[in-house]
Design brief:
The chain has five helices and eight strands; from the N terminus they run αββααββββββαα. With about 210 residues, the protein is α+β, with helices and mostly antiparallel strands. The strands form two sheets. It has a five-stranded antiparallel sheet. A hairpin with a 2-residue loop joins strand 1 and strand 2.
């Protein structure tokens, strides 16, 4: 007979791990949903917001100088080139800040499809894959880190590699991978998952 105290301790530890996790894994009879919000790095966000304050001042004075006129053509051309790159740099910084604050990556398995989307609010890029074409779902070889865009989980569709799990921790990646595999098993024939004729599943790959 199992020890009730040990069982309660395991349940408490599991609940603590879920409470500490950034991600949300929802498993229902209809399928799977994983929400992976951006990994916020507040020191980086604060630094960029301060930099963007100076960026805004430089942008204002450069545009004012261009539209005011009265300067030599060569100076205007230089300012136009400079402000173009300055604007692109500022736009990239703004996007990074917004992604850090509001970005989210999602994966769904439902209706015979695997769906991955990432973006801000309603501005998201969505990829839809036929579940029968998905194979080799495993932990990615690329190292996961909070300041990287590496995907912690990789999978293949018709031989082409894709990924999910931006900046997931190892524990989050393992939890997500286990959930994905459960729904792949329930969503298509076993031999299609295993990639072999004998129907046995390789524990390292799906």
């Amino acid at each position: 007979m199992s020890d009730p105290t040990a069982a309660r301790r395991n349940i408490v530890n599991l609940l603590k791990k879920r409470a500490d996790s950034r991600i949300t894994i929802r498993e229902t009879a209809d399928g799977l949903g994983i929400d992976n919000p951006s990994h916020r790095q507040m020191p980086v966000i604060m630094f960029l917001l301060l930099w963007l304050g100076g960026w805004s001042v430089g942008e204002y004075f450069a545009l004012n100088e261009i539209f005011r006129g009265g300067t030599p053509l060569a100076a205007d051309l230089f300012l136009i080139v400079w402000v173009t790159f300055w604007t692109l740099g500022g736009a990239a910084a703004w996007y990074f800040v917004l992604w850090q604050l509001f970005g989210v990556e999602r994966l769904f398995i439902t209706g015979g499809a695997l769906v991955r989307e990432a973006g801000l609010w309603r501005l998201r890029r969505r990829q839809v894959f036929d579940l029968a074409r998905v194979s080799e779902v495993e932990l990615s070889a690329a190292p996961a880190a909070a300041n990287s865009t590496n995907r912690a989980i990789s999978f293949k569709v018709d031989g082409k590699q894709y990924g999910f799990g931006i900046a997931l921790s190892k524990e989050e990646a393992e939890q997500s991978l286990a959930a994905i595999r459960r729904h792949l098993v329930s969503g298509k024939p076993k031999n299609a998952i295993a990639g072999g004729d004998d129907g046995e599943t390789d524990p390292g790959k799906l």
